[in-house]
Write a structure and sequence with these properties.
Blueprint lengths: L3 E2 L2 E9 L3 E8 L4 E8 L5 H15 L9 E11 L2 E10 L5 E2 H8 L4 H20 L2 E2 L8 E3 L5 E3 L6 E2 L25
Antiparallel strand pairs: 1-2, 1-5, 2-3, 3-4, 4-6, 5-6, 7-9, 8-11, 9-10
Length: 186
């Protein structure tokens, strides 16, 4: 039995996190590969709110340098061990992998290449901020490269409104990845 969710045939696992598994899938209607984030069954309410905030933030972020959210839905995940209802997010597939791996395998970038990617990252971030979205966990592991090595900002799991949830302009929650946090957050 092929694993599937609706029109998406699940091919293999790409990665996993605290709230979900990311699967490589094939969109049978459009004939292309995509990434499908399948929410874990036993996530707590706080994590579920973060996932829904991610979906809401990404829905308004259509930009060359931001990973594209194609679909969010609830469907039946069919696999050999049975079926279950799942929430899932379908995302553009970034076949170039993480910027972190690119740097780890290639070494430091020469200045022209560093400027090239930094400009793309700033264009993507500027667009996010114009749309009122603060990423809050920017790091090389959340910067992906597509098959043409175009930079894509990904993983908006900690995203919040730029003006803060209370409208004060302050983002007060201490979160993100410890080694990438600004000193004033510590």
């Amino acid at each position: 039995m092929n694993k599937s969710i609706g029109k998406y045939t699940i091919l293999r696992t790409l990665g996993r996190g605290a709230s979900c598994k990311v699967k490589l899938a094939f969109d049978t209607e459009l004939g292309r590969k995509v990434a499908v984030k399948i929410m874990n069954e036993n996530i707590d309410d706080t994590t579920k709110k973060l996932v829904l905030a991610e979906v809401e933030a990404m829905a308004k972020l259509k930009h060359l340098h931001v990973i594209d959210q194609i679909e969010f839905g609830v469907g039946i995940y069919k696999k050999a061990s049975g079926e279950r209802n799942v929430e899932y997010i379908v995302l553009e597939l970034a076949l170039g992998g993480e910027l972190f791996d690119f740097i780890a395998n290639s070494g430091n970038f020469e200045e022209p290449l560093a400027r090239f990617y930094f400009k793309q990252m700033l264009e993507g971030l500027d667009f996010c901020h114009q749309q009122g979205v603060a990423h809050r966990d920017l790091k090389p592991e959340n910067i992906l490269l597509d098959q043409n090595f175009v930079l894509k900002i990904a993983d908006f799991g900690f995203a919040a409104p730029v003006e803060g949830r209370d409208g004060s302009g302050n983002l007060m929650t201490k979160l993100g990845t410890l080694n990438y946090m600004a000193p004033e957050i510590h």
